[in-house]
Amino acid sequence: MQMQVTSGTALLDDSLPKGAATNNTEILRAANLRKVYRSGDQQIVPLDGIDLEVIRGEMIAIVGPSGAGKSTLLHLLAALDTPTSGAVYFAGDSLHDLAEKNVAEYRNRAVGFVWQRHHLLPDFTAAENVAMPLLVRGTSLAQALRTAKDWLGEVGLADRAGQRGGQLSGGEQQRVAIARALVNGPTLLIADEPTGDLDQQSAESVFELMYRLHQSHRLTSILATHNNSLARRADRALILEHGKLTPAGVLLAQSAAPLGRMADGAMQTLEDLG
Ligand SMILES: Nc1ncnc2c1ncn2[C@@H]1O[C@H](COP(=O)(O)OP(=O)(O)OP(=O)(O)O)[C@@H](O)[C@H]1O
Ligand SMILES: [Mg+2]
Question: Which atom of ligand 1 is nearest to the CA of 75?
Answer without folding.
Answer: 18
